[in-house]
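Contributing new records

If you add data, match the layout below exactly. Sequence lines come first and carry their own label; structure lines follow with theirs. Keep one chain per record. Anything else will be rejected by the validation script.
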Amino acid sequence: MPVRPGWGIRAYGDDGAEPLFEAAFCYDCDQVRLWGPAVPEHLGQQLFDAASPYAQYLRLCFRSA
């Protein structure tokens, strides 16, 4: 079964037209996938500690939004 991120964000520049980048967080596999014109290809997939206090706080913010 493919892994599906559950939470995501978009970052916009001053013009607000297209996102500079998008990030999708998967708390099951501890990965964040990044894409967009401001993201070099080799940085498109990153690991993060989903159990860390910072990641848990981010998840809390996602859930309350």
